[in-house]
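Hi V.,

You were right to ask for the full record rather than a summary. Here it is.
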Amino acid sequence: MTNVSPSRPATRRRDSDRTRASILSAATREFGAQGFSGARIERVAKAARCNIRLLYHYFGNKEALYVAVLETAYAHLRQQQAALDFDLRDPLGCIEKLLRFTFTYFEKNPYFEGLLRAENMMRGKFVVQSTRVPEEAARLKSRLREILQAGEEQGVIRPDVDPVQLYVTLTALSRFHLANSYTLSVMLDVDAQSREWRAERLEHSVQLVRDWLTTGTPMQFAFEGGLERQQAPLAI
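Predicted structure:
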């Protein structure tokens, strides 16, 4: 009778996990760069260093692989967001931290931006098949509500800010200049791809969001009143 090492099943699982991860990584690059229609499974298999039969064994078909790529990409973003250290004693700081993270994340993950662009061109054909993506987004919305509520209670964030509208704004500020960098550069005679310009864009975005969130708050009135008191003697 042949003795089977107890570690062999665990080794096979690790090999399987590595192969799946390699396929997903290669597929993310392929779909992110080429879109769904332009992507080729042959290129994914070659980049992942596995045969097509094994790829189909793990993921079934091109459509299922694409959905898995979308879910994995969204999950990575949500995991990174969930790991942010939000101190509810500083709600405005929490939102600024989320904006700075999101801004940098899109810049450092161009294939994710490509996936979003491709999926929107297909009118969300595949992301709608996922239950995982909206479930993870629901947790983010809940966290944003907590931050906004804390800010409203402390008088530093104006009331009735919609967390969904806020997140769409943060995302738009983080993506628009990337998706349109070439045309913006030509049209406005700037280098929208330079590190310096993007750093300025980030600071502008942070100030924009802070100003919008604090409009009409007691903190704003106190600040403006302070300015008026300081400037009053000059008017005499």
